[in-house]
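Late entry, evening session. Most of the bench is empty. Finally got around to the prediction I had been postponing all week. Sequence below, unchanged from the version circulated by S.P.
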Amino acid sequence: MLRPLYYVCKIFGLASYSYVADRRNKRINTDYGYLNYMFTVIWLIVYTFGMAVQILTLRRVDIDSKIVFFFTMSYYILLYTSSIVVLVWVSIIRREKFLEIIENISAVDNKLRYTVQEETYMNRNVLFNIITEIIILTLIQCIFNIYSIYLTVSEPFYIIVIETINNVPDICNALIVFQFINLVFMMKQRNRQLNKRLTTWINGTESRPIYLNNGNDRHRQLDRTDDHVNIIPVFVSSVGNTEGILRQTDIHLLRQIYSELYDTTCLINDTYGIPILVIVCCMLTGVVLFLYEGLTTLDEWSERNLTYGITFMLLFFKVMFFCHTATNEARSSRIVVEKLLLKGNCRKECVEELKMFSLQLQAMTNEYTACGFFSLNLRLFASVVSVIVSYFVIMVQIK
């Protein structure tokens, strides 16, 4: 499901995961690993050189406002620094974690019961998000590149090259954000499926258990996420629960599934916490810079600056929205479990298991954070918007 995003990330040195998968499948030798490291080092040199050139270029440009110069310098330093941090963290330090996250999600899929329609619908949603994000990113960057070249056509050639290279770190950061968003979306789908199983028992429509018939493992396999990563097969049990009664084993299995989802959420936070932190700081700095320049400096660059500022704000909103809805989906499990307890028609052993499940839900809270500094939700987005609006109001009053 992440195959299109995987290959685009690999172009920018962000997906060395194929090396890990190939090593596990014993299909390549160690020389391929050195090639991935070399590819990553090349991009590190490009980003480091680009940051130095950009800083020297800004020092030679006459900027009337000291505030604009400060934010411009801060933005480009954060832009290239975030790209370097993302590249090192994802491709070197945490390069095996992506594969582990996918394997954990596959393990959860192996325990949840999917119909063919549900499985197809979930896969299509993820694939649609990935393809849409890549198309939009490509379209926006092409428009910006053409417009920047049009405005600098009378400038020396090296200026045009610098303006083009400046878009590369933006693409790098956007790809990591899209990768993070789609993993969060996949987690939301699994939590929704778990809540759906609990809700069917409340409505009294459960007709079969959710455990798997291990004897049918050899009859079905899912598509692979990439050429070398094996996904554990998902299939529906052929065993029917003719009684339609909630069983202790069913609840215990749901507890195991939720525990695995919680572990996967922690793994996502550990893998993408630092990259998301630096990217969010870079995006917010870019929002303030480009909106301020676009609203106060009315020249040929105003439209581009306003478009950049709005694009960064929309991307920030998308991250907050996906994390907020995924967190709420996980939290709603607690409400469904309490409703099952209030229904009062469960067996004694099921009631005890549900109480333990309720305590587990209180202790294990699925929440996405930026390296633990702040939670990623719509409350943060509202706070950021209010701060930015207050800043612009103050600046207008000073002017």
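Two things to note before I forget:
The two ends are 51 Å apart (CA to CA).
The chain has one domain: 3-398.
Will write this up properly tomorrow.
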